[in-house]
Amino acid sequence: MVFGLSRRVEVGKTSRHGGSKGCEGGLQARDLRDASAQQAPGEDYEKSNNKRMIAKQVVKHNESRYIGAVGRRKTAIARVRVTLGAKEHFTVNEKPVADYFKTKELQHVIFSALRESGLTAGVTAKVVGGGTTAQAEAVRHGVARAAIIIDPELRKKLKKLGFLKRDPRAKERRKFGLKKARKAPQWSKR
Fold this sequence. Notes:
Layout: H1 29-39, H2 45-63, E1 67-73, E2 76-84, E3 90-92, E4 95-96, H3 97-100, H4 104-117, E5 121-128, H5 132-150, H6 155-161
Parallel strand pairs: 3-5
Antiparallel strand pairs: 1-2, 2-5, 3-4
């Protein structure tokens, strides 16, 4: 035990025998299981929870003017807003895409999620961190996430193309005693 830190549970103290000890009306684990079973009969908890989250997001986007999503790649983070019914535009950090991403390859990466989803909408993105390629892929990730909030049927298609995957590859940290993450200094026998 760490000194000064003790774990105390105030509500729902239970003994090993399953009865509540000294606490009237405390929540038990079986009560929580029963409540979740009543909420979604016949469905797995994970699936029902996922459906509820999508339903909340769909209701939320119907009330608001835009659909927001976050895309990530390496150290780049893109906050993307997709506005339905707006004139078709695409800005990144308050600049047109052609000005921010100069190469055609990066522009192709960004527009690929919109093209594959078939959405006609205005998109604004704020991107921080990473390099240009990582930023472009982060924006694509964010647009794809926003697209499945708008139309959950697109999930299968976008997932197959790999647009919904948060690519976890990033630079490995340097270790002490080494020059880089794995590169060792030159070794001499004598």
